Amino acid sequence: FVYQFPSVPSPDDPTVAYVLGDTVISTSLTAKPLPEPSPPPVIPSFPLKLALFGVSFSGKTEQAQRLSERYGIRSISVDSELAAATEFSTKVQLGSIPEPDASDELATSFMLLGREAQSLLVKGGEVSDRIYTELAITAIRKLAA
Q1: Which of 3, 27, 55, 114 could form a disulfide with 89 if both were Cys (CB 3.0 to 4.6 A apart)?
Q2: Helix, strand, coil % (nearest 5) of the chain?
Q3: Closest by alpha carbon to 86, among 143, 132, 130, 47?
Q4: Alpha-carbon distance 14 to 105, whole Å?
């Protein structure tokens, strides 16, 4: 294959390099074509576990809800767990519901954490990181049960 220029170009003409490069590529692809692309890897199925961290009002709950809806995974919000635990402990204290059986460790732990958080909040204090952590652990255990 020989390319004929309509006129003799000067060596400084950029089209000479372009045409030469294009010719070399075309010739090499004709002689040795590119291999077929390999198939995508097989990714094994496994349970998805995510933890979203960030400052207050950064959108963690919104993103967790979107991920939960999109991928059909369960979501735990420690703030929701705190609200549920305080409500549960309040109902037990008021007698609206019976106190959980001592053999039910999850419900007992949930109630005690809610009671402890409620007493801190009533006094105007902050809920400690320990309570939040134990609420998260209790919620994870409830999912596993």
Answers
A1: 114
A2: 55, 0, 45
A3: 132
A4: 79
Which letter does DSSP use for residue 143 in this model? H
95 conformational bin, left if phi > 0, alpha if psi -120 to 50, beta if neither: left
Rounded (5°) CA angle 39-67-46: 50
In the numeric block, which tokens belong to residue 18? 């372009």
- Amino acid identity, position 78: V
Q: Are 88 and 114 within 8 A, CB to CB?
A: yes
Collect all residues with Cβ–Cβ distance below 8 Å to 5 and sequence separation of at least 6: 19
Distance of CA 132 to the CA centre of its chain: 20
Give residue-wise pLDDT tens across range 2-22.
Answer: 555 556 566 666 665 666 677
HSE on the CB side for 9, CA within 13 Å?
14
Number of H helices, E strands in the chain: 5, 0
Residue identified by tokens 């909040």 is: 121
Quote the CA–CA distance of 51 and 64 in Å, as a whole number.
Answer: 9
